[in-house]
Amino acid sequence: AIDDDCNQTGQILAAILDWPQGTFVSRLEVEPQAQAVLVEREVDGGLERLRLKLPAVLTADLRLNEPRYATLPNIMKAKKKPLEVQPLEAAGPSPPRLRLLRLEEPGPRAAGAKVASVPELLDSLRQAG
């Protein structure tokens, strides 16, 4: 998930589920017989290797996968492929995920005020609550 590069989605999910977590995973090896996963991650002092019981929450580092780049011949082949466009209704009915309860415009914004000094600013903030 994209969380503005704050690295919190995976960690919060692991805390909510009470599952082990491996963050910034740069190498991954699954041990199916042990129902575990071996992860390698970069830390300040080098590499850290962890063995986590499954199920676990893992977040990926950019070195986990090596991107495959499209070659020019494959791009040209893809341009020639027909693209079948289907209407949304062809996928079948789907229940609405959101229900709009009320829509209101925000109220008018209050006018600002200038202050001469920091103590005066603090005073006005205290009075405003």
Q: Helices, strands, pairings?
A:
Layout: H1 9-17, E1 21-31, E2 36-43, E3 46-53, E4 57-60, H2 72-80, H3 118-128
Rounded mean pLDDT score: 89
Helix proportion = 10-25%
Tally the helices: what do you get? 3
What integer value in Å does the Rg equal?
26 Å
Strand portion: 15-25%
Biggest beta sheet attributes:
4 strands, mixed
Number of strands: 4
Order of helices and strands: HEEEEHH
Spans of at least 5 consecutive residues with low confidence: none
Shape: extended
Q: Could you describe the 3D structure shown?
A:
The protein is an alpha+beta fold and 129 residues long. It has 3 helices and 4 strands, in the order H-E-E-E-E-H-H. It has a domain at 1-79. The protein has helices at residues 9-17, 72-80, 118-128; strands spanning 21-31, 36-43, 46-53, 57-60. A 4-stranded mixed beta sheet has the order 3-2-1-4.
